[in-house]
Design a protein that fits this description.
Helix content is 37%, strand content 18%. The protein has 245 residues and is of the alpha/beta class. The strands form 2 sheets. The chain has a 6-stranded parallel beta sheet with strand order 3-2-1-7-8-9, with helices on both faces. Bound molecules: nicotinamide-adenine-dinucleotide (NAD). The site of nicotinamide-adenine-dinucleotide has 27 residues, from strand 8.
Length: 245
């Protein structure tokens, strides 16, 4: 913890990469664990663009269940801790794989979303976009043209938004510290960010309840524990360092 706080407080070019694990304590389970969404709704049948185009009503069964979990969730101390780091000038931004909007709700200004966000939906036929609230009372939601709407999240088989890719690689190649929080680092291309940052000279601080495939390869400091406990403790330590100057 001491070393991680020292690294963070010694530079302003710090970045975070977050995954599903940071939102687990907000009540959103990761989808990959046993009993998770992908157990009941196999990815190839429910989470690909082709699956949505072939049978949107079927895919909306999974999406409705996902929305029911994500909609009531509130930011937890890990989301708020990162927002605090940004506020004190020690975090340039967050690259998140999450689609739950909790970093923004927790107060972070610069959030780069790799996999989109459930807050808006788009019609694949005519391109009209809707706020989730606008269409929340009709599941599956339909566009005024009659087609089913797709949430603006990146399905397997879709490309990562180009702006997010460019911005994240720019930040990752110049950051001094990369905090990697609650990601199994199995979904590419986000999973390649820690290695690219490391190659460009960054120190990698990883926070997870268990070691991942990054831990023994690219991680410099591994802080094992729940993000909701470890992030606020780390931020408090950093603030003490800052006060001491
Ligand atoms: P993942 O499910 O592959 O891995 C989650 C990681 O979080 C694991 O390594 C696990 O050990 C760790 N973890 C679990 N609880 C934790 C806690 N309390 N504190 C710290 N770490 C904890 O997640 P991923 O790598 O983000 O990839 C899954 C994909 O699924 C993402 O791309 C994302 O788009 C999507 N997803 C999003 C959400 C969300 O928006 N909240 C939730 C589930 C899945």
């Amino acid at each position: 913890m001491h070393r991680a706080a020292d690294l963070l407080s010694s530079s302003r070019q710090n970045l975070a990469l977050t995954g599903a694990g940071i939102s687990v304590e907000s009540g959103i389970p990761d989808f990959r664990s046993s009993g998770g969404l992908w157990d009941r709704y196999p990815v190839h049948e429910y989470a690909t663009l082709r699956a949505f185009r072939d049978d949107p009503k079927k895919v909306w069964k999974m999406l409705a269940e996902m929305n029911n979990v994500i909609r009531p969730a509130k930011p937890n101390p890990a989301h708020r801790g990162l927002a605090r780091l940004e506020q004190v000038g020690l975090l340039q931004g967050i690259i998140t794989q999450n689609i739950d909007n909790l970093h923004q709700e927790g107060g972070t200004k610069r959030v780069i979303e790799y996999h989109g966000n459930v807050q808006t939906l788009t019609c694949l036929a005519c391109g009209l976009q809707f706020d989730a609230e606008q269409v929340a009372n009709r599941i599956p939601p339909q566009c005024s043209c009659g087609q089913f709407l797709k949430p603006d999240v990146i399905f397997f088989g879709e490309s990562i938004p180009l702006k997010a890719l460019q911005e994240s690689y720019e930040l990752a190649s110049t950051c001094h510290v990369l905090l990697v929080i609650g990601t199994s680092a199995q979904v590419t291309p986000a999973a390649t960010i820690p290695a690219s940052a490391k190659q460009a000279g960054a120190s990698i601080v990883e926070i997870n309840i268990e070691p991942t495939m990054l831990t023994d390869s690219v991680t410099d400091v591994f802080l094992q524990g729940k993000a909701g406990d470890v992030v606020p403790a780390l931020v408090s330590r950093v603030e003490v360092f800052l006060q001491k100057g």
